[in-house]
Design brief:
Helix content is about 35%, strand content about 15%. It is α+β, with helices and mostly antiparallel strands and about 70 residues long. It has a two-stranded antiparallel sheet. A two-stranded antiparallel ribbon has the order 2-3. Strand 2 and strand 3 form a beta hairpin. It is globular.
């Protein structure tokens, strides 16, 4: 059994389809988060819009059912 946080805004693909655009603020935050993960030698091996989920405040979370690669 896996319990996850409820993220009502769906994934990044749904967000783009609904709003017809991608906010530069969200892109910047995603890029900074990826940079931080790489700095910590952690790599998301399946990064795509479907694996970036957004909550009610458009705060994103990376998700995937596989484990990240720790270098």
């Amino acid at each position: 059994l896996m319990i996850e946080e409820y993220l009502p805004n769906g994934d990044l693909t749904e967000y783009i389809d609904t709003k017809w655009k991608l906010d530069i603020d969200i892109l910047t935050r995603i890029a900074l988060a990826i940079g931080y993960l790489h700095y910590r030698n952690t790599y998301h091996l399946n990064l795509k819009a479907e694996n970036i989920l957004l909550d009610a405040k458009d705060t994103f979370k990376f998700t995937d059912q596989r484990l990240p690669y720790l270098h």
